[in-house]
Specification:
5-stranded antiparallel beta sheet; alpha+beta; about 475 residues; 6-stranded antiparallel beta sheet
Length: about 475
């Protein structure tokens, strides 16, 4: 069989090749000359990149690259294709006709005419959806790792300040925020509630000069437990900037555009506090950020509840311990207290008997004084009559009458004192002349002393023959 008689390999016509290439509607198949200018542009390239074939024929393929130096990127791929048989191949961002970016992978391979390179073929595939799915998986895995790590740390933590710091740090890592804060309510040992906060991603000085957040329209939903608040740009939110004096973020506040906040709610429904996160760029937080932060807030609520229950249990144990110690001390001192109380009751009873005695003595004294006073009135009346009727020349009798009246008057004074002692007569306090009182007592003492001397002398003169009579 001659060479001419051998069967020839079937060849694909250009129109057939064109139909096959355009059938790849989700893959860009592009051919270029040696300088990278487009020579063919399939339907897949139109769908992915947005340019029509007429717009791209003769134009440089460099316009699809997202890098700043597009021509340099195309030159590198051409050089690699000539040297290694393939240029590019790495995944990266590419540009569409409308300026939007998409994630793609593509290789540039040489088209050979026998031993010569006639041009290049570029195969480009859009991997944006796959990249987003892979990114979502990575984010979910990252969120689970953060939540698991935070959950383990929270389960072992008993100090509420360190606990909320763990939550705040985890929230910043979870949401990719620039900074985050946890404002939470604390109940001290006196039962008083007050607000504290922790920060992550920013120094404490960034908030120390500002007051605690109030229940404004932006913050109220979080502090009232009304759900998650997410804003792509908080400065354009209709609830923003309505409260004085700042009308928004005060001067010196960290820049916030993207905003995300969630309540931390106890199992009893009490709002324990709020987690707040911010970023200077817009559109940072998404639904995945919300889901992760909701899970973290739930773990934080359980951990805070557990710490509070633990603290309450410790307080109750301490109170019981103090009560038991007080009971032991009471039992130890009970006998002494009973003895002291019995002695006190005995003293009170003795004082009562003494008081009753004094009352009886007072009543007796009052009765005697009253009767004696009646007798003195008769004596004084008769002495007064006698004194008026005595002759003027009877000086001795006059003196005797005056002395008798003076003695009766002193007896009346004594009677008044007895009545005062018995409370039968109210006391009549008067200014006291100490000198006159001493002089009066001096006269009385001298008279009694003289009478005592006379009595002793009479007793000696009697030589015991008769009993002396003591003067009254």
């Amino acid at each position: 069989m001659t060479r001419d008689s051998e069967p020839r390999k079937p060849e694909i016509a250009a129109w057939q090749w064109r139909q096959i290439v355009n059938g790849a509607t989700d893959t860009a198949i592009i051919t270029t000359d040696l300088r990278g200018r487009v020579t063919s542009w399939n339907i897949g390239a139109c769908n992915i990149l947005g340019w029509t074939e007429e717009e791209m024929i003769g134009r440089s393929l460099s316009r699809v690259f997202a890098e700043e130096d597009q021509e340099a990127q195309l030159s590198r791929e051409i050089a690699d294709a000539m040297k290694k048989g393939k240029g590019g191949g790495e995944e990266g961002w590419r540009l569409r006709n409308d300026g939007s970016r998409f994630w793609a992978v593509g290789e540039l391979s040489p088209i050979r005419d026998k031993s010569n390179v006639a041009g290049f073929i570029k195969i480009l595939r859009d991997r944006t959806a796959q990249r987003e799915a892979e990114e979502a998986i990575r984010e979910e895995r990252h969120a689970l790792e953060v939540l698991n790590r935070a959950g383990s740390a929270l389960a072992a933590e008993t100090d509420i300040q360190r606990l909320v710091q763990i939550v705040t740090d985890a929230g910043v890592e979870l949401t990719r925020a620039e900074f985050g804060a946890f404002f939470y309510n604390v109940i001290n040992s006196a039962g008083e509630s007050y607000m504290l906060y922790t920060l992550s991603g920013a120094p404490i000085e960034a908030f120390s000069k500002f007051p605690m957040p109030r229940n404004t329209e932006v913050f109220a939903p979080t502090f009232l437990g009304q759900g998650i608040v997410r804003s792509h740009d908080i400065t354009k939110d209709p609830r923003y900037g309505k409260n004085s004096p700042g009308k928004g973020m005060p001067e010196g506040h960290l820049p916030v555009r993207s905003y995300l906040a969630v309540s931390v709610i106890s199992r009893t429904g009490e709002v324990l506090g709020g987690l707040f996160f911010g970023h200077a760029r817009t559109g940072v937080f998404n639904e995945r950020s919300e889901r992760g932060l909701s899970g973290l807030a739930a773990e934080a609520a359980v951990a805070i509840d557990n710490v509070r229950l633990s603290q309450a249990m410790h307080r109750e144990i301490e109170e019981r311990k103090r009560a038991q110690e007080a009971l032991v001390e009471l039992n130890a001192t009970l006998e002494r207290q009973v003895t002291e109380r019995t002695e006190q009751l005995r003293k009170n009873e003795e004082a009562l008997r003494h008081s009753q005695k004094m009352e009886a003595v007072g009543q007796l004294t009052g009765g005697v004084a009253h009767d004696f006073n009646n007798l003195l009135q008769i004596i004084l009346g008769n002495l007064d009559t006698l004194q008026r009727n005595l002759p003027a020349e009877s000086g001795r009798l006059q003196r005797a009458a005056r002395n008798a009246i003076t003695g009766a008057q002193r007896a009346a004074t004594l009677t008044q004192r007895l009545l005062a002692f018995s409370r039968r007569q109210p006391l009549d306090p008067k200014p006291l002349d100490v000198n006159a009182l001493v002089n009066g007592l001096s006269d009385m003492i001298h008279r009694r002393s003289a009478k005592r001397s006379t009595w002793k002398l009479s007793s000696v003169q009697g030589c015991g023959e008769s009993k002396p009579t003591r003067p009254n």
